[in-house]
Amino acid sequence: MTTTISIPTEEYKRAKAFARERDLSIEELFVALLGQLKSKDDAIWDQHDADVVPYTYEELQARIDEGEAQFERGEYKSHEQLMSELQEEYSWLK
To answer: What is the pTM for the complete model shown?
Structure first.
C-alpha cells in the first residue's frame, strides 16, 4: 500500500538532510520513525484509554449552563482575541 502525506517544505528539507547524514532515503527514515512509534506497544495511541469515561447527561448540562452563565456575565473572548492568542501560542504553525 502507498500513502501520500503532505509535509511543509522546510520540515521536509530538514528531514531529508537528517536522512542523508545517516545514509538513509527519506522513505527509510519515515519507516524507521513509524516503526519506533509502533514498537512501544502502541502505548502512544492507547495511553489514556483506560482513564477516559464519557460525560453523563448531567455533567454535560452543567457545562452548558456554566458556559451560558459566563457569556451572560461577559466572560468571553472575541474572535479577534482568540485568534491573536492562538497565533501567538502556535506561531510555528502557518
So the answer is: 0.39
Longest dimension (CA), the chain: 61
pLDDT band for 60, please (50, 70, 90 cuts).
very high
Residue with the larger pLDDT of the pair 46 and 32: 32
- The CA-atom distances, in angstroms, between 19 and each of 6, 30, 34 are 18, 9, 14
What would the 3-class secondary structure string for the chain be? CCCCCCCCHHHHHHHHHHHHHCCCCHHHHHHHHHHHHHCCCCHHHHCCHHHCCCCCHHHHHHHHHHHHHHHHCCCCCCHHHHHHHHHHHCCCCC
- Listed in sequence order, the residues at least 6 apart from 55 whose beta carbon sits closer than 8 Å to its beta carbon are 63
What are the cell numbers at 57? Answer: 447527561
